[in-house]
Amino acid sequence: MASARARLAELRALRASGKKRLSTYEVEEQGDIYEEVDEEGYKKVIRNRLDEDDFVVDDNGEGYADDGREVWNERNGGYSDEESEDDELPARSKAAKRKREEEKQRKEKINNGISKYFNSGPAAAAPKPKPVATAEDDAFMADLLGEVDTNVVSNKVPKHNVVKSETRRKVRILSPPLSEKTRTSKPKRRDENSDPVSPTEEPALDLDNDDAPLFHPDDDDIPMSDPIPSSPVTKAVERKAIVPIKKEPEDDDDDLMEVVQATGHHESKAPSVNISGSRPPPKLKKELYPTPASSSPVKPGAEVDASWNDVRNKLNVLSSPASSESRVFGKLRPQDVVEEDGSLRMFWLDYTEVNGSLCLFGKVKNKTTGSYASAFVKIDQILRKLYFLPREYRQKQGQTTDEEIDMEDVYHEVDQMMSRLKVNMHKIKECTRKYAFEMPGVPKETQYLKLLYPYDKPAIPMETKGETFSHVFGTNTSLFEQFVLWKNIMGPCWLQFEGADFSAVNNASWCKFECATSKPALISPVPDTENLDPPTLTLMSLAFRTQLNVKENKQEILIASARVYENVSLTETAPPEKLPCKTFTVMRPAGSSYPVNFEADIRKQRGTYLLEKSEQFLLSKFLALFDKMDPDVLMGHQLQEVDLSILLSRLKEKKTPGWHRLGRLKRGEWPKNFNRGGGFFTERHLVAGRLVCDVANDMGKSLMMKCQSWSLTEMCDLYLGSSNARQEIDIEAALKTWATSKDGLVNFVNHCDTDTYFVAALVLRLQMLSLTKVLTNIAGNSWARTLSGTRAERNEYILLHEFHRNKYICPDKYSSKLQKAEEKAQEDDDETADKKKKDKYKGGLVFEPERGLYDRFVLVMDFNSLYPSIIQEYNICFTTVDRTPSSENENEEKVPEVPASDAEQGILPRLIATLVGRRREVKKLMKDKRATPEQLALWDTKQLAFKLTANSMYGCLGYTQSRFYARPLAMLTTFKGREILRSTKELAESKQLRVIYGDTDSVMINTNMDTISDALKVGQEFKNSVNERYRLLEIDIDNIFRRLLLHAKKKYAAVNMTEVDGKYVDKLEVKGLDMKRREYCALSKEASQRLLNEVLSGEDQEVVLNRIHDYLRELAGKMREYTVPVQKYVIYTKLSKRPEEYPNKETMPPAQVALRELARGKTIRPNDVISYIVTNGDSETSSLSPAKRSYTLQDVMKADSGLKPDIEFYLLKQIFPPIERLCAPIPGTDAVRLAECLGLDARKYQINTTANSTSQNTEIFPLESQIPDSVRFESAARFTLTCRHCKERSIFEGLSTSLHMCTPHGIICPNAACGKPFSVLTIVAQLESQIRAQTSQYYEGWLVCDDSACGNRTRQISVYGHRCLGPKGYAEGCLGRMSYEYTEKQMYNQLLYFASLWDVDKAKAAAEKEKGASGGGEKKESVAALVEFNRVRFGTMRGVVEGYLRKCGRQWVEMDGLFKFMLA
């Protein structure tokens, strides 16, 4: 751009001086036109060319081929500008003549040598074939371009200079924008993604042009000021004028189709174009370019049972989106949507903020057709509202003076501040506000100075203080928050806009209707009394298939499928498979071309299938159809964090025109922070205007609690039933095997298309949209944020609305940086305070369970919504509880006092009471037998939303990231909960009832009754006794257990009696046991389920034990015979961090599997669930640890993998521990007997059957000497060496593991730039230092409580032995046991680990074991040599450690003490 301007400036200067450019032209010396080679050299050039690909190959496998020779004798009549780059050297050029004259004497040799590689005579070049457009192409083009027919086309076509740009693509397909107008002045044709150019004139706007970016004419797709022609012919002329320079590898096969693409929008199909060359060599073609189709694999498609086709066949698929159906294009006229009084009504769905303006997206009703269309409203003149708290005395230079402050002083200082910020328009006035939150020094009610100024001006820092004011509130309040609080807008609803300007906004968005308003005061929610139904929405579910580009390590899109449901009501109750839908799938080949006859077969499928040749064409076509359907909601599985990221990154990578159609706001350029850590928030901003509903994000997971891995297959199995079962496929393997055939690829594409149905079916079945809308209406936040799963934000907004209505100043939202800085400052202020103890206050009370098997009726008495009820019962609120004492002495953590009974009801209890009352009213409505299914579905969703919101209100009090975090209130609430549970237990015992367990809000009472009627009678009497004590708290009978196996805290299994149609039915209920954890495989859970059924069957104990023993023998036999399906061995583990961040990742199976998947190009993120099977390994890994032998199910299932589950590992780690724990309460069996039944060698193991009543992890432990070092020393501190020269810190893991640090001359620094050796003295000094550090840690003698709710850590030893003294040291409030944080066993193992580092013989033996591995022989020789070189050196270091080991008493056994009884 800069060079072009410089050339123009130079040209103007020459014209001004009367000269021409020709007079200043200088001839530059050029290099040699050709390279001289001899005959052998020329043959070598030809061979190299033949080794390369043909320069053009069409999709049918025919066309031009390059045989490596120059065609010197071909002659062309003329040369056009377009073909000049591809012209060949003329036969009569000067270079050819000169060469012939110089080499006359060797003419004969040349004719027999090089000349035989040339063609003997001139050949006429075949004319370029014109592409043939089919009838379907014409219909599709007419449909896509139909929208421009509504626009008036100018007769004048703007002239554009020919621009040669290296950044312009040769092939461009762009669907026309919705509406385009003429542009009066545009000196240059600009690229789609070039930088924005400021227009010559801008319309005058209020508030210092704060909405200018909305009207920037950034590119062809954002005409927002003056009109330009929208005719496709004009576009074709403009694009024809551009000479493309850059060629991308993926589009090389499209170079000869430039004439086709010059039309701009013509969708040509590859098979309909036949490109033929002047000299096609068919034999060479077949030899050099075998395709999957030509190589003819033996029917790989038969390997897969494509059961998903059965699901597809039952769906109600309408005509495809690409058909030429009649649709309304262009913008709606204002008179079609406005009301009779001139106002506009819009149902808002989403928002975004653009330079101080709030942009709302929603739906308006077209009065002429009765349908709903997308709408965009830009709102200006929303003002910031800041509140300045005046000081009592003026403060200068940090010192308080005697000068009193009045409001006028504050006014002058604030006014001066606005002048410095160049804020021309602002309003200042005095007001009264209340404050009830955690900031110290703020009065409960006082006078504030209120400042209003525009959002397009810079924000004032929230920590700002002045001479006359001490605090500023509201500095970082977002534009959206300010607006919804001001107008009392509670979530998505109908809004009424009066005085809207229908001409102020022109093509700022992709919506069908646009307007703007600069009078936000005239915006108001439409009253509920009008009973306006929400508009119907257009839903689009998406599914993608990607392929890893190994060279660039990027995922590239192979298939994009979409399923569109139009005019869907939020309360839709019809089955998903019955709903009418439209589908389209855009794809490209995984290789160079599609299988033979694939196109004919794919067009027989229901729906639209568009076959493109490259990813660039795929993205362009997908965007065109996406824009045509204009969805309101995008649905997907892992859409939020995976698919959307890939789609956006590919659009940016390919510079796809019109990429911003994914959202509804037109944009000129990509955000600067995109792909630079912006994350989902940046991506969500780009799709503003469309809601993103992801079944695999936090919101989706919260509605599908039965899932463990949250894969789409698991979701379908659990929530859609067996008729909608999804089949999991290995995409990478499929593309290399069965999907390479015609039928296989059709099934592969249909699998992607079927996934779009599964996603939509889950969303509709779970009522995700309806539930999230009601939750948003209750909280008053944005629907998009609720869909992303932000529960804490919903709680914040409902409190913001409530306190704002009551004239309270709300707490400002701290950024994460400020919050971390504040936490650090608090730590610095109180270094002695234990951070864990301070952060974690005491939660619910849990009674010690009376373990055992109960065969009489046990009642579970549960308090209804305990914490919300406590808040109401005791009037706990920010406005009622005095929190001063606790804030003065935080170390003591004093619980605040309960407010007086005559205190005014607080805002928080009143809000919860309102939610509970509204839920009660909705539940009454549900009892109406005349209600329709749609009404019942809506009411059920509403009552669930009210319940979820009321129960989560307590959470914001104790959540440190919440702006309403109030630790004293949370402490008071849980304190009252513990108090209530204790008094309930005391009441039960006073009535001679036995409480066998209690947890937070419930107690289990053993009734000792044999009939259910007697048990219920006991429960009813106890219920009445408890409820008499409280005004609002209620206890009720929650469960009736016929039999109960009480194992430990929060761990039990019971036969629950549930009432169904007036009869009681048995149902197994399990809580907290191993079989409920995802870390145990399906086979382990199946065995646990079988044992539970036997234990709780009520039969004779001896019979039950015999059955259990027989079953275990049978199970072990089947496992060792490998007759158990391999799918039952899959273990699921959730990653808490990135796999490479785990310090012990080498010994963690899920980390190893995740790292292997990352190497394949898969996306692995924290909180992902990894599935794997521990196998026996292959020839290379069979001798390695279980982590190295763990693979995914797909890897194990491969026919040639040779991988089988490690049966001994599963018996020892997956089957035995949960079974042993389940059988522990049953007399007559023990761990040894169970181990024998499973075929485990019990003699090798030490049975841990300590009588410690709190230890619930009874397990068989191997002898210490038999544990591998990788397991035994897993938690040991690593030996770190610091180089004295470069200060590099490195971990030394022994000679065998840290081979790169070992040389014949000792250990060297691993830093490549340093490489200096460590002296023996240096190593000994650092080794001794680290041993002493570990010894010091051991002798500190810290004790920790095993009760997680207590978390007490102290060095005080109780006179009661192991009893916990509690956080206050009064031996109250905790029944946990104290144990050493750093045990003597850890100290001993630490010393052994340090000693093992210098054991050269062990290193040599380890290298011997790895002999079978890849490169193991070479490593063995290296280790063997280094062992001998370093034996003496390492022996010195080992002697240092052994000196400490000799002082360690753990390795010595006092024999006289053991056998003293024999000497008596």
Q: What does it look like?
A:
It is an enzyme of class 2 (transferase). InterPro entries: DNA-dir_DNA_pol_B, DNA-dir_DNA_pol_B_CS, DNA-dir_DNA_pol_B_exonuc, DNA-dir_DNA_pol_B_multi_dom, DNA/RNA_pol_sf, DNA_pol_a_cat_su_N, DNA_pol_B_thumb, DNA_pol_palm_dom_sf. It is found in: Nucleus. With 1464 residues, the chain is of the alpha+beta class. It has seven domains: 45-77 and 88-127, no CATH class; 135-268, no CATH class; 327-535, Alpha-Beta Plaits (2-Layer Sandwich); 536-766, Ribonuclease H-like superfamily/Ribonuclease H (Nucleotidyltransferase, domain 5, 2-Layer Sandwich); 841-864 and 976-1072, B family DNA polymerase, palm domain (Palm domain of DNA polymerase), CATH 3.90.1600; 1081-1250, Topoisomerase I, Chain A, domain 4; 1283-1341 and 1382-1451, DNA Polymerase alpha, zinc finger (Hypothetical protein af0941), CATH 1.10.3200. Helices cover 35% and strands 16% of the residues. It has 46 helices and 39 strands. Strands 21, 22, 23, 24, 25, 26 and 27 form a seven-stranded antiparallel β-sheet that branches. Helix 14 (598-602) links the parallel strand 17 (582-587) and strand 18 (608-611). Helix 22 (768-779) runs parallel beside helix 24 (791-805), helix 34 (1082-1095) runs parallel beside helix 38 and helix 41 (1320-1340) crosses helix 44. It is globular, with a radius of gyration of 39 Å.
